[in-house]
From TrEMBL, chain A:
One of its GO terms (biological process) is electron transport chain. The lineage of its organism: Bacteria, Pseudomonadati, Pseudomonadota, Gammaproteobacteria, Thiotrichales. Residues 364-393, 401-432 form the 4Fe-4S ferredoxin-type domain. One of its GO terms (molecular function) is 4 iron, 4 sulfur cluster binding. Part of a membrane-bound complex that couples electron transfer with translocation of ions across the membrane. Residues 1-27, 463-508 are annotated as: Disordered. This is Ion-translocating oxidoreductase complex subunit C.
Length: 508, 186
């Protein structure tokens, strides 16, 4: 076991509220009648359907292929018939609809023939990445970035450390904790594959010290695996947001990931524990990513716990299985209390990035109108990214977006620490999210207007060219006409002259 | 006395040569301020400002001939950006030119299109595809929503529809206008 080498600035000590959902083992959510699968459950381009309405599909069959580089495939979580390919409500803060594939399950849950890899050590890193991409694996910590890209360090980088993120710092969420307790073996399967693919010199499994059961389960599993070399468990202090990638790296290695940089720039690749488990299943068992463990907890949940749930299962069915006091269409939180967002609607499906569903929070503060900022500076003390939230707030509020960029708005990880400590209850993160999406929108518009300008100028040039060509043609035609006219006249003149000579001759 | 005059004359000549050389070598083509203004304008090419496109309007602004508040598609944010660039006071949008509207996209009702090519000729960014007596269609990604194709259509088959948001282009609302209900705090 190794010791953490650093810490990050700011952060909070929060009450974990994790006991409620760790009292019972992971349970399987019953198979739902319909599964709704959004085509985009990851960062990047949406997958493209390769099935049609009415097709019969088997469990694990690919139903949409990856489009472009930053994209992954999508699979049928159970056997059944494709019922629709259309726009459906998705779990997104906008409440907008997006293209989804709907499967009506037949209840047989019949697998497509699985093709496990016998010995992954015989395979090249490229082949492993390809399988992981085809298996639809994305980061299961919450962001949903395609994992195969993070397993490709590129030719210019050496991977010093593969970091497994088991911090799970946000209150209430326990899906990684339960995975560690029950499936440490499976996680290590994936870790071995990842280490092989990345050729990482050492591996650190970082776990917060509020998960002693998880740590001991992992220690046991690790002791039984002498072939995993240079691998150690690091127990890190519980502090929010240690689970943030850059924060965790700072805690574990004492090094900072540069602003606008990636962990690979300092020789580190980090993956979530759940992702490692999914990689192990994909390679060693030939199973694509079709389910995940979702924490269902909160004051209104009767049987809080962790549920292995197929993607596409309506959240309402999951909540019904866990039994809640929630009324139909009552809002719930997707994610944790700090970074999650409110959702309502019963037909929203569980997706690859859904780590927790929270119904009812302990001692929820009543919503109140924000008071003016008193410039106390508490937000700056709490910020784990060393930003100045109050400056960012003023500039976001004034829509002075260039200034927000100068204050490194895009280094904000939206952890919500500043919101939490603000004595005036200003929704700071909402301002930052607003400013970020506005800036991204402006950039999109700029690109579009650049394109429009180019097309406009090209069109003007084309019209000008056409005009010149027309003039040229007219000129040529005129010249030709004039030439033929002159020729005719000449001939006529010659004829006339000949006539006159003839008459003269006659007269003579 | 004479040495001083000769020295100064020589110096003047040398300096003059350097300046002359620099003015040729480092000549700035065009007017950069026009480019900067043009960059801020939304490139809709709609002509609502009474100029034939964004560039001519930018040239007119640079020459100080017109106000900066004649661009309805750009709206308030464009006027603000122009005011910042030119260091003048922002003004409200000139209503004579039009009003700020949500972004729209031209859509051709393909059943009604008779293939007259009039809209193709009207489109300032060549975003309409088609040929004489064949159905036309709008390349949605290239359309700037300028509405110039609506007027010439003899069968009135072009509609301007609002650009639908999708989760990728969706923007968080401004919290100072809408009080967001965020998750409770533990």
């Amino acid at each position: 076991m190794s010791k953490p080498l650093g810490s990050f600035p700011g952060g909070l000590k929060l009450n974990g509220h994790k006991k409620r959902s760790t009292q019972s083992p992971i349970r399987k959510t019953p198979l739902a009648k319909t599964l709704i699968l959004p085509l985009q459950q990851h960062i990047g381009a949406a997958a493209v359907p390769i099935v049609e309405v009415g097709d019969k599909v088997l469990k694990g069959q690919r139903i949409a292929r990856a489009e472009g580089h930053v994209s992954v495939c999508l699979h049928a979580p159970s056997s059944g018939t494709i019922k629709a390919i259309d726009e459906q409500a998705i779990p997104h803060p906008s409440g907008l609809n997006a293209p989804c594939i709907t499967i009506e399950t037949d209840g047989e849950d019949q697998w497509l023939e699985r093709q496990p890899v016998k010995n992954f050590r015989d395979m090249s890193a490229h082949e492993i990445r390809q399988i992981i991409r085809d298996a639809g694996i994305v980061g299961l910590g919450g962001a949903g970035f395609p994992s195969f890209i993070k397993l490709n360090p590129g030719v210019h980088h050496d991977v010093e450390t593969l970091l497994l993120n088991g911090a799970e710092c946000e209150p209430y969420i326990t899906c990684d904790d339960m995975l560690l307790r029950e499936r440490a073996e499976g996680i290590l399967d994936g870790v071995e594959i990842m280490q092989h693919a990345l050729r990482a010199r050492n591996v650190i499994l970082a776990i917060e010290d509020n998960k002693p059961e998880g740590v001991s389960a992992m220690e046991l599993a690790l002791a039984a695996r002498p072939q995993l070399q240079n691998t150690s468990i690091m127990v890190i202090p519980t502090r929010y947001p240690t689970g943030g990638e850059k924060q965790l790296i700072q805690v574990v290695t004492g090094k900072q990931v540069p602003s606008n940089g990636l962990p690979i720039d300092i020789g580190i690749v980090s993956h979530n524990m759940g992702t490692a488990y999914a990689v192990g299943r994909a390679i060693n068992h030939g199973e694509p990513l079709i389910s995940r463990i979702v924490t269902v907890t909160g004051t209104d949940v009767t049987h809080a716990g962790n549920f292995e749930t197929l993607f596409g299962t309506p959240i309402s069915e999951l909540l019904a299985f866990a039994e809640t006091k929630r009324q139909p269409d009552e809002p719930f939180i997707l994610g944790g209390p700090m970074m999650g967002f409110n959702l309502s609607g019963d037909n929203l499906p569980v997706t690859k990035t859904a780590n927790c569903i929270l119904v009812g929070v302990d001692d929820a503060a009543p919503a109140s109108e924000p008071l003016p900022c008193i410039r106390c500076g508490d937000c700056a003390t709490a910020c784990p990214a060393s930003l100045l939230p109050q400056q960012l707030y003023w500039h976001s509020r004034a829509k002075d977006f260039d200034q927000t960029r100068d204050y490194n708005l895009f280094d904000c990880i939206e952890c919500g620490c500043c919101d939490y400590v603000c004595p005036s209850k200003i929704p700071l993160v909402s301002y930052f999210r607003f400013a970020k999406t506005e800036i991204m929108n402006q950039e999109r518009e700029h690109q579009k207007s650049d394109l429009a300008r180019e097309r406009f100028e090209t069109r003007l040039a084309r019209l000008e060219r056409e005009k010149q060509e027309k003039e040229e043609r007219q000129r040529q035609r005129k010249a030709a006409l004039a030439a033929s006219k002159a020729k005719k006249e000449k001939q006529e003149q010659a004829a006339a002259e000949a006539d006159t000579t003839a008459t003269e001759n006659k007269e003579n | 006395m004479l040495t001083a005059i000769i020295a100064i004359t020589l110096l003047a000549l040398v300096m003059g040569l350097i300046l002359g050389f620099a003015s040729i070598k480092f000549k700035v083509e065009g007017d950069p301020i026009v480019d900067q203004i043009d960059k801020i304008l939304p490139q809709t090419q709609c002509g609502q400002c009474s100029f034939a496109g964004c560039r001519p309007y930018a040239e007119a602004i640079a020459a100080g001939e017109v106000d900066i508040n004649r661009c309805p598609p750009g709206g308030e944010s464009t006027i603000q950006a122009l005011a910042d660039l030119l260091d003048v006071e922002p003004k409200p949008l000139d209503e004579e030119c039009g009003v700020e509207k949500p972004k729209t996209l031209a859509v051709i009702d393909e059943d009604r299109c008779i293939g007259c090519t009039l809209c193709i000729q009207a489109c300032p960014v060549d975003a309409i595809l088609g040929a004489a007596k064949h159905m036309h269609t709008v390349i949605a990604d290239e359309c700037t929503g300028c509405e110039l194709c609506v007027e010439p259509c003899p069968v009135d088959c072009i509609d301007m529809v609002e650009v639908a948001q999708n989760p990728n282009t969706w923007r968080w609302p401004d919290p100072s206008h809408v009080q967001l209900e965020r998750g409770g705090r533990s």
